[in-house]
Write a structure and sequence with these properties.
- The chain has 2 domains: 88 residues, Helix Hairpins, CATH 1.10.287; 137 residues, Helix Hairpins, CATH 1.10.287.
- It has a 3-stranded mixed beta sheet with strand order 2-1-3.
- With 233 residues, it is mainly alpha-helical.
- Helix 1 runs antiparallel to helix 3 and helix 2 packs antiparallel against helix 3.
- The structure holds zinc ion (ZN).
């Protein structure tokens, strides 16, 4: 393998390492972000906060209804027991029964309205919970595939770093120094393939002598236009 071929191989390895590292950065950012799940969880919490006081209200109304019923029953029993003889007292008892029955009826209406609201809130909670379950499952699947991709990329990069070390060991120090010094100016691509007589990076055709020189592979030859090291491919 000529020096130029080795430099090209080194460049390909390094470009792939850069690409892998970029993707690994994206994966890391994506793994740290789960906005959709957080939003869905907030939806469930809101629905629970709506439902809970309505359920308490319904329970309290139910207790009040029981208590009004019992009180009316006790008063009625007293009224018809014959133990109370005083007309004023009897009249009061009758009035109390009427008032308790009215209260019972009002409470029943309130309870019915509250039960409707409870049902509605329960439905909303159910929907929110279903949405959260779906989003969580989806996130876990993505999470899983991202973790797999991450591990593959890390393995691949480790192998590439090993290959890089081996390739670099075979390249003469001065060629390596030249390559390194060109990297920042050439967007990490100091070496360009020559396809036919054309530089594949800048697209400019080389003159005959340059083309011949590149094909011989003996020396380092530069593109007439962009100044990259040309490799015949
Ligand atoms: Zn060029």
């Amino acid at each position: 393998m000529s020096q130029v071929d080795e430099l090209y191989e080194l460049q390909e390895i390094e470009l792939t390492i850069l690409k892998n590292r970029k993707r690994l950065g994206e994966i890391k950012a994506e793994l740290e972000q789960n906005e959709a799940v957080q939003q869905a969880r907030a939806g469930v919490e809101t629905a629970q906060k709506t439902l809970s006081p309505l359920q308490t209200k319904a329970r309290n109304l139910d207790l009040e209804i029981q208590s009004a019923l019992e009180k009316a029953k006790t008063t009625e029993e007293n009224l018809y027991s014959g133990s109370v003889k005083n007309p004023k007292e009897l009249q009061d008892m009758q009035q109390e029964i009427v008032s308790l029955k009215k209260r019972h009826s009002d409470l029943e209406t309130q309870l019915l309205e509250t039960m409707f609201a409870v049902e509605e809130a329960e439905a909303t909670l159910g929907e929110s919970q279903t949405a959260l379950d779906m989003i969580t499952a989806q996130w876990q699947t993505e999470h899983q595939s991202l973790l797999e991709e991450q591990s593959e990329l890390e393995n691949h990069t480790r192998h590439l770093l090993e290959s890089r070390r081996k390739v670099m060991a075979d390249i003469p120090a001065d060629a390596l120094k030249l390559y390194e010094s060109m990297k920042p100016r050439k967007h990490n691509m100091p070496v360009a393939r020559m396809e036919g007589s054309t530089c594949s990076v800048c697209g400019v055709s080389q003159n005959m002598s340059t083309e011949r020189e590149v094909r011989s592979g003996r020396n380092i030859t530069y593109c007439n236009n962009c100044g990259r090291i040309l490799v015949a491919r």
